[in-house]
Amino acid sequence: MRLPLALRQTTAIALSFSLALAGCGGGDSGSGTTFEPTPTPAAASRFFADPAQESLSVSEVQQIVAQAVGEARALNYPAIIAVVDRVGNVLAVFRMNGAATRMFTSRRTATGEISPREVDAQGLEVEATMGAISKAVTAAYLSSSGNAFSTRTASMIVQEHFPPAPNTPGLESGPLFGVQFSSLPCSDLAARFSTGNAGAAAFIGPKRAPLGLAADPGGLPLYKNGVVVGGIGVMADGDYGFDPNVTDVDGDPEEFMALAGIQGFAPAADIRADRITVDGSTLRFADARIEGLHPLQTSFAAISGSIGTLIPVRGYYDGTGVVAGTPYGTEKSGIRRATSAEFSLADAYVLSNGSGANRYPVKAATDGGTTSQPLTAAEVRAVLEEAFTIMTRARAQIRRPLDSRAQVSISVVDTFGEVLGLVRGPDAPIFGIDVSLQKARTAAFFSNSVAAQQLNDDTDAEIPAFVQRARDFFGDQTALTGKIAFGDRSGGNISRPFYPDGEVGRPHGPLSRPITDFSPFATGLQIALVKANLLQHAVFVEGRLNARDVVQTCTAVPDGPTGKKRLANGIQIFPGSVPIYRGNQLVGAIGISGDGIDQDDMISFLGTHNGGLKVGGIGNAPKAIRADTLTPAGVRLRYVNCPFAPFLDTPEQNACEGK
Where does the secretion signal sit in this chain (predicted)? Predict the structure, then answer.
C-alpha cells in the first residue's frame, strides 16, 4: 500500500520552502529540561560525565505509539510502529488495522534501475515488523548525547557516493559504507530477547536488529532530558529501501508518523544530523517537518483494540503489553561503568551479563596452537588502554558541540576472532559495539594465512569466486594467505563498486558487486557471507514450518580450532581497524567504531603502536607488508588515514606519520 502520489506531492510542497540540500530536521519540540551536551565530569580525573540514567516509562511508550498512530490515521495510511530503548529492547510493536504485514527490501540498484532479480539481500520478502524494529534500533544505536541520527542519516552515509545524488558520481562512498550489515540477527555479540521478559538477562543489550541497520526513512531517535533513550520505527508502504537523492525533499508518510511519535521526546536541534558536517557535506535528519504534522493524538486507550493492537514478534517481543525501557548505564541494561578491578581508566564502560559479570574481560589469546607467542593479557590491556587514552584526546567528528572529545567502542581479538577485551566511552553510540568487533575480526581474518582457505571452504558455492577475483585483481594467485596486512580501510577499498573508490567508469573492487547490481542491500562478499543467516532468521520470525532461529554465529566459513567461527558476527568494510603483529607474525587485531572513520583509524593505529611501546614486543604490522605497498590497477591501496591536527591537548599535526 502506498500513499497516493498527489498527497505525497502536496505534503512535500508544503515543506519544501524551508529545506535545502543538506539542512532538514524534525523541529525543536522539547525533550525535558535544558539540554547540556557536554556536562562537566563529576571528578577531575575524568574526561566524560556519565549519561543520566533516563528511560521511557510505560505511559511514555504508549504516548509515543499513540502520536504516531494518530498521524497515520490522519494520512489514512495504516502502519506498524515499533519502539525500542537505547540498548535495543523492543518496548512495543503496534499494528494498525489494515497495515501491510509484508514488505520487500528494495530492488533499486545504484544506477536507479529496478533490478529484475534478487542480488544478495535485494528484493527479499519478509515480515513488515522486521523493518519497523530495524528502523527503531538504527535510530537508537546511531545516536548519543552529542549526535542525533536517523535512518535517513543512515541512508546518506552507506551509499556508493557521498552525498548520494544524481550529480555526485565521482565522489567517494559514504563514510559508513557497509554499516547496514551490523547488529545482525546471527551476531554472537548481540543479546537475544528472553520470552516473557523473565530472568536477570532479559533486558541486557545491545540487542540484535532483524535486518541489521536500516537506511529506509521512518526511524527517529527518542530523547529525555538530553539523553537518548530509544528509537521509533515505522513501516507502512511495504518498500524497505533508501533515499538515492538528497537534492530533493521527500514527503515520506512513514517519516511524518515517526516525527509525530517523537514529539515531546525529540533531540535538541543543536545535535541533530542536520547540524553535523562530514567531508564538507551536512548530513540529513528528516525531510518531515513539524509544521506538516496534523494535531497530535496522545491517548493509547483510544487506539488500542479499536484502531489496532499490540502484536508479538517472534524473537523480539511477546505482545502482551507495553514494556518500560531500561536505563542505559545500569547493570540491567548490559552496559555499565567498569570497576577499578576491570580497568584503571576512570571513564571506561564495559558490557555486562545483567548479573554483574563483565561479558568480555581482558584475557590472554586462545590461539596458542597456531601462534608461537600469543598475545598476553597484559599486552591486550595495554593496547585497549592506550587506544582509550587516544580516544580521550581526540577531537570528535560527529559530536556536538564542536571540540567535543571522541567516544568510541574498542575491541581486541586474537587470530581466531576470539574477543580478548572490549571497552567503550560512556556515551559512545551503541552501534559501534558490534561494529568494532566486526572490524577487529575482519582485519585479523584478511591478514591471516588461512583467509583464502576459509573462504574457499565456505558452504556457499559463490564465496570462492570472490577469492579468485581478488587474486586476479592483485595479480597474485597466492593472495589472501597472510603475506599482506589488511586494515579495514584496505579491505574497504576493494569492496567498493568502483576502484578506486567513487571514480565512475572504473571496474568494481573484487569483493564488491558491479555497479549495475550494487545497492545498499547488495554490497558483495559482505552480505554474501551472511545472506543465508538473514533468510533463515526471516523464516523464523514468520513462524513458518516450526523454523528454528539462526544460531548465534554468522557466516558459513568453517569453524576455527576452538569450534567457533572467526567471523562470528560478519565482516565490516569501512575504516577503523588494524592487525596486531609480533615482529612479522600476526597475533590479533583491534577494531574501533563510534566516531569519524579517520578518528577510528587513528585510535586503532596509535593504540596498537603506543600499547606496543608500553609493554614491548608487539605493534603495528611492519611497513613492508602493509596493504599500502600494493598498487592493483595502478592505484595504491590504503592502510590507515589519520586526521590532521586531531588532538585537543596538543598542536601535533601528523600523529600517525612514521609509525
Answer: 1-22
